[in-house]
Amino acid sequence: YFYRKGKTPRRHPPKKPSSNQTDPVGVYCRVRPLGAEDEECCIEVISSTTIQMHTPEGFKTNRNGEYKETQYSFKKVFGVSVSQMELFEHVAKPLVDDLIRGKNGLLFTYGVTGSGKTFTMTGSPGQGGLLPRSLDMIFNSIGPYQAKRYVFKTDEKNSIEIQTEVDALLERQRRDNNLPILPFFFNYGYGVDDDSSYSVFVSYVEIYNNYIYDLLEETQEDAIKPKPPQSKILREDQNHIMYVAGCLEVEVKSAEEAFQVFWRGQKKRKVANTRLNRESSRSHSVFIIKLAQAPLDADGDNVLQDKNQISVSQLCLVDLAGSERTGRTGAEGTRIREAGNINQSLLNLRTCIEILRENQMCGTNKMVPYRDSKITHLFKNYFDGEGKVRMVVCVNPKTDDYEETLLVMRFAEMTQEVEVARPVDRPICGFTPGRRHRNQQHQVCFPLLLPSLPSCELTDPHDDITLPRLIEALENRQRIKQMLIEDYSKTANMMKPVLQELDTSLISKDNFIQEQNGKLIEKDKIIQGNKAEIERLEKKTKMQEHKIDILQKTTKIFEDDKRSLQHELETREQRLQRELSEKRRMEQRMHGVISDTQFKWEKECERRVNALQLEMQNKLWVKDEKLKQLKAIVTESKTPGRPEPPPRQTQSASPSPVPTTTPVRPRHRRSCSAGGEKWVDHKPSSSMDLGTVLQPVIPNAIQVSAPSEKALSKCDRYVLTHQEVASDGEIQTKLIKGDVIKTRGGGQAVQFTDIETLKQELTTCSVAVAMRAGSNLGPGLEHHAVTKRRKP
């Protein structure tokens, strides 16, 4: 189904009945002579059906580094020395024969611009092309049997009507255009049906920018404001044949008259001057020759007044515009648009041919896009079996056209594989043959055999001369008749044995012919069977080749998919490896973080345990000291004369406790020489007792828990006291020293210059009294100050 705008969908029209036999599209090749003798040639004619193309220098070679030479075969190849007459005999004459027999034909020239298409179709003075020679053959064949002008009349629906002799005479008088039949100039001819009457109609259209224009349409010329021509549309007649609606069809009676009509339209055709062709066709031209024929009546005098007995056949001669590249032709503006439309229409033609070939070879049923272009839509009936199709491929052997000629050759090679159904023959009228000649013989022979009768007019009732004269004449005619009968009888008797002998020999010959026909029929059956088998094998081979192509394409697609999937798999594997590596790095990092955290917490727990142990030992030591002092007081009160020595203590397995929060503090601190400098002693608030370790004594120092701008502005030096538990569990004090300097903004800043570390150690002796720098420490304990300095 297909849809038309504003109308309901309808089915494709049924095809015209055709025979089961098919004919391939006949493709011929004509080689144009080179313009200059020293010009390089890329085409060589190697036989009457084959040409060979040579790759010119400068073009790409094959993989082996050699120039590729390709051969193309055609139905017949015409070299540079072939005449126009020989070309017509092989290409156009069979189509004209079919036209006179009532069959349609399509002949078109195809090739690049400047390859000789117009010369092949039209010719030149003294060298007529296919078109004038076809017209000459038609009129030489039907000349004596043409009907009078306007007996056949066209209507607007692509059909022919028959008028009576009176109506035709009136129309001739009204139009005053009864031109005489002019002489012919090519001496072609063909035997036609003597009992039919013929008439020829011609029309000439061009397809320009995919619009159809009538070249024979009379337009009113206005020099001030010229009116553009109106485009025509394509329609379908009652027999489902495509035609140009509103196109003027001119009845012609001679080849010269038809050629004059052709030249009248040729003057209106669109041509332009390009870099490659001085008169380049910018449109596709279609010259349609329509032949109408109808049988004579039973008397053989007039055309039978029956519209159903009219047979209309047509021959379309098409001069396609040449394909071209705008870079070579130097086209600009309108020429570029024309070239684009020409190339697009030729591309649509190639597409239709390619789909037809695919449907026939592969058994597919794809829709052929005839409607995409006017040229293919107009001639779709020919490819559906309405007539023979012939194509003349014109090529220019110069090297500049090599690439475009290569495309033309490929299209021609593909076109030859398209089969067109052969149309059925039209039915023959049931009248007795030879009606025209029999009527002429009666009119000529009978008046010569018998004498004429005398005047039979009686002017007087007593006239005794007229009647006896008439009786004598009748008796004379009777005697002549009897003599003719006797001569006829004698001749018949003499001819009977001759006829019998002839009949006998004819019967024997007929029997022999029948025997030979029987043998020929058997041979034909064998040949037909072999042909059918060959066709079946060829179709099977083509089908297998098509399947191989499909499998190769499928394999290529699968290989591409495989490569893409492998690439994707490799990409994902690399991504997975990266993720695994990242995961291992994260695990290692987390293990490190966990180990560091675990180590920190272990140290923190150990520190807290040591701190608790130290606090408990200090409390126990304080209680022991109090008990000892109490015991000493008691002992002194008992023996006031001599003090007793202190009791000896045994060595304990556990280390002596180190006081941290004991109220007994060192009596002497380390002093920092201040000189003339003034210090800021920064002792931050802390849970630890700073008195457990030797502390510096700074005279005239301002002690603060947090530094302030006011305190820093009054001092020159700065010291920060920081106490912490070392890695070995001992308590250490850090003295961080620095200089107070003034900034450009009027503030104060501290530049650290020295770090002093103070550390205490516990001795291993069980009972000891250490006195250092005037300090009174507990028994069994001794503090050692370890000082470490380092530059910040």
Could you please describe the fold and organization of this structure?
Pfam families: Kinesin, MKLP1_Arf_bdg. Residues 24-418 form the Kinesin motor domain. Residues 1-15 have a biased composition (Basic residues). Belongs to the TRAFAC class myosin-kinesin ATPase superfamily. Kinesin family. With 792 residues, the protein is of the alpha+beta class. Among the domains are: 22-421, Kinesin motor domain (Kinesin); 707-758, Immunoglobulin-like (Sandwich), CATH 2.60.40.4330. 39% of the residues lie in helices and 21% in strands. Helix 4 packs antiparallel against helix 6 (255-266). The protein is rod-shaped.
Summary, kept brief:
With 792 residues, the chain is an alpha+beta fold. The protein is built from 14 helices and 33 strands.
Number of strands: 33
* CATH overall fold name of the domain at 22-421: Kinesin
| CATH superfamily membership of the domain at 22-421 | Kinesin motor domain
Structural class: alpha+beta
Supply Rg. 63 Å
CATH architecture of the domain at 22-421: 3-Layer(aba) Sandwich
- Tell me about the biggest sheet? 10 strands, mixed
How is the topology of this model organized?
Layout: E1 18-24, E2 26-31, E3 43-45, E4 50-53, E5 70-73, E6 76-78, H1 84-91, H2 93-100, E7 104-110, H3 117-121, E8 123-124, E9 127-128, H4 130-142, E10 152-154, E11 160-162, H5 165-175, E12 196-208, E13 211-214, E14 231-232, E15 234-236, E16 242-244, E17 250-252, H6 255-266, E18 271-272, E19 280-281, E20 284-295, E21 311-319, H7 326-329, H8 334-362, H9 374-378, H10 380-386, E22 387-395, H11 402-415, E23 419-423, H12 435-449, H13 466-638, E24 670-671, E25 679-682, E26 696-697, E27 702-704, H14 709-713, E28 717-725, E29 731-742, E30 748-759, E31 771-772, E32 775-776, E33 786-790
Parallel strand pairs: 2-6, 2-22, 7-21, 7-22, 24-26, 25-27, 25-28
Antiparallel strand pairs: 1-23, 3-4, 4-5, 8-9, 10-11, 12-13, 12-17, 12-20, 13-14, 15-16, 18-19, 20-21, 28-29, 29-30, 30-33, 31-32
Helix pairs in contact: 4-6
